[in-house]
Specification:
By secondary structure, the chain is mostly helical. It has one domain. 77% of the residues lie in helices and 10% in strands. It contains one helix and two strands, in the order ββα. Strands 1-2 form a two-stranded antiparallel ribbon. The chain is rod-shaped. The termini are far apart. The model has no long low-confidence stretch (mean pLDDT 89).
Length: 79
């Protein structure tokens, strides 16, 4: 096969061309896999962030209730 880069002809052996083409296909495949994995990781991270917000909210609610119980048990009403 031959092609031109600028004005200079380029000659590539067929077996080398097939090797390069095969390597590029492998790279494209690995790139697609990496993109898929990144999407999955992003989705998992989003789910984790959502769960962490729920936990934070729950802990805040528990803290508030413990404060109310503490106030009811240990603060004496003014008479």
């Amino acid at each position: 096969m031959n092609g031109e880069i600028g004005n200079a002809p380029v000659f590539v052996k067929i077996n080398e061309y097939k090797t390069v083409a095969s390597t590029l296909d492998a790279i494209r495949s690995k790139l697609a896999d990496a993109k898929d994995n990144l999407g999955k990781i992003s989705e998992i991270k989003s789910q984790e962030d959502s769960e962490l917000k729920e936990w934070e909210s729950s802990l805040g609610e528990i803290d508030r209730k413990v404060g109310e119980i503490n106030k009811a048990l240990f603060e004496h009403p003014s008479a």
